[in-house]
Amino acid sequence: MKKLKYVFAIGLGVVLFQVEAYDWETEMNVVENYTAEIFYDNKPNMYFSTLESAGLIEVLDGVDVSFGVNPQASEVIKARRLLPLNNVTKIIYKDGGDNVIGTLTVDYTYDSDGYPLIGKGVAVAGEESIAINTTYSYE
After folding, report:
1. How far apart are the first and last CA of the chain?
2. What is the top-level taxon of the source organism (predicted)?
C-alpha cells in the first residue's frame, strides 16, 4: 500500500512529492520520490472570480503553508500559489528516475467569455486509461 508522505515543493508547474510504500523483499517501508509537471491553458480558472469575490483570495494571500517537518524558507509558500490561475490541460507524473508513469490530458470547449463548458480528460497509467468527461454550468 502506498500513501502520500510529503509534498516538498511547488514551483512553476512542478510538484515534488514523496510516497511511502512497503517493500516486500526487505519487509520495510521505503520512500519513493515522484514529480508532477503541470501545464495550463491561457483561460481563467473558472473558480477564481467566485473565490475572489467571496474574499477567499485575500485570505489565502495571508496564509503561509509549510510542506516540511522543519520548515525552511524554501518550504514555506503562500497558500494562494496552490490555486491555479488557469485551467489544467496536462499533468505528467514521473518517478524518481524521471520515467513517465502516468499522464492526464484535458481538452476544454469554452464559451464566449472564455469559461469552460465541457472538459474531456484522459488519464493514462501503463496499459490502462480512463476517460473523464465533465460538463460545467454557471448561474
Report:
1. 42
2. Bacteria
Retrieve residue 67's grid coordinates: 510542506
CB 94 within 8 A of CB 34: yes
The span from the CA of 119 to the CA of 132, in Å, is: 8
Cα→Cα distances 46→17, 22, 129, Å: 26, 39, 26
Spatial separation of the C-alpha atoms in residues 80 and 65, rounded to whole Å? 9
- Render 112-135 in DSSP notation, one character per residue: TTS-EEEEEEEEEETTEEEEEEEE
How do residues 78-131 score in pLDDT, each as one tens digit?
556 666 778 889 999 999 999 999 999 999 999 988 889 999 999 999 999 999
Provide the residue type at 90 as one letter.
Answer: K
CA distance to 64, 90, 107, 128, 137, per residue, from 110 (Å): 33, 17, 10, 28, 11
Phi, psi of 85 (to 5 degrees): -80, -20
Burial class (CB in 10 A: 0-12, 13-18, 19+), 1: exposed
User: Looking at residue 113, what is its pLDDT?
Assistant: 83
Grid coordinates representing 74? 524554501
